[in-house]
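> example.struct
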């Protein structure tokens, strides 16, 4: 999915106490570059991308008694289609919902990417199920610590750029140097919180098929 930035130039300027008219510090174009780099750094800490969506298609083997499947990309934004593949390759759409009399499966946990079937499979077949879905989340829905970590990293980059600027006044350097030290603990804390959002492997187990129940 396309990379997105997790904060804006205004967010960084507000953190630094600057307005758009202030000549202090890096230009908006330079801050924009800092934000892009900081956003990708946050992704690296979490081993995932927090914002953006992509369409995915996956194929699954099934086994006797299986009632759950786990999708690889998470969180799941939309479960588009779930289809059964016949031995000749023909596709049959399964209904998505929680009504046992009419539906076949539903998205049980969007964050973990778990699909639950209303009845267990009665056979073991390779490449039996095809799932199409949209994974990811909107920029407005990213965790607060992800945005704050991006702001902090970008602000620190802006401060460092200012401190090594030969044309920057010594007075400005005196004001900003303590701010760099003051954010040491804060940005590390935010990155530790970001690490908690790393995608984890999810294991699911099928139930034994009850007597008289046949998967439709």
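> example.seq
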């Amino acid at each position: 999915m396309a990379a997105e930035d997790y904060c804006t130039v205004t967010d960084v300027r507000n953190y630094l106490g600057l307005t758009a008219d202030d000549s202090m510090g890096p230009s908006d174009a330079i801050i924009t570059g800092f934000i892009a780099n900081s956003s990708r750094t946050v992704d690296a800490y979490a081993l995932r991308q927090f914002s953006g969506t992509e369409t995915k298609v996956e194929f699954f083997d099934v086994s006797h008694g299986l009632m759950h499947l786990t999708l690889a990309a998470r969180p799941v934004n939309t479960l588009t289609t779930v289809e059964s593949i016949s031995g000749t390759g023909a596709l049959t759409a399964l209904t998505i919902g929680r009504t046992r009399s009419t539906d076949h499966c539903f998205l049980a946990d969007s964050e973990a990417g778990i699909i639950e079937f209303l009845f267990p499979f009665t056979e073991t077949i390779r490449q039996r199920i095809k799932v199409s879905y949209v994974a990811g989340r909107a920029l407005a829905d990213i965790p607060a610590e992800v945005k704050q970590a991006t702001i902090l990293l970008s602000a620190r980059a802006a401060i460092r750029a200012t401190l090594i600027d030969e044309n920057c006044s010594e007075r400005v350097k005196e004001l900003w140097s303590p701010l760099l030290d003051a954010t040491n603990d804060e940005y590390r804390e935010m990155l530790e919180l970001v690490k908690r959002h790393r995608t984890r492997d999810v294991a699911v187990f099928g139930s034994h098929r009850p007597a008289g129940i046949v998967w439709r």
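> remarks
The longest strand covers residues 125-137.
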